[in-house]
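[Meeting: bench + compute handoff]

Bench side (C.D.) handed over the final construct sequence. Compute side (W.E.) agreed to return the predicted structure before the next meeting so the bench team could plan truncations. Sequence as handed over:
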Amino acid sequence: MAIPLYAYMILLSIAVSVVTFIAWWAILFTGKYPESMFGFAAGVMRYQWRVLTFYYYMREPYPTFTLVSTTADPRDDPATFSIPYPEKLSRGLIFVKWLLVIPVSFVLMVLGIGAFVVMVIGFFAVLFTGKWPEGMRKYMIGVVRLGFRANAYSNLMTDVYPGFSTQ
């Protein structure tokens, strides 16, 4: 059931790559991420969040294919995602963000192995009990949040380093 969602998500991810490239130039010259482009990128990240929560068995309603291009979540879905629009971004950091996010990517790979194991166990827990064990659910959400913070950082949407915490 998630295949059409993933196909749409791949197309949106390609579009965000183009938006990020254009935003790189805008940030270089103005120090600002164009607000309409930022809203689009935030909407795509919101859509990705909703698809992943469906894929990881954390929600029952099928996510819609709608893309809301705002920074604040309209709260029309159980899985909410918001990202604040930065008034000013560092012009210098755009040259090294890709390098600075590498350690977080390694941590995410290790945490992702654990997340895979937790997801398999969670699948059977949901199958037999109808709900996720709370600790496993928090771990999965934490790993995905860290991934989204790293994604927002590498897509130039924030200057706040994602860190290594899953909280």
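W.E. noted at the follow-up: Residues 3 and 91 are 38 Å apart (CA to CA). C.D. will use this when planning the next construct.
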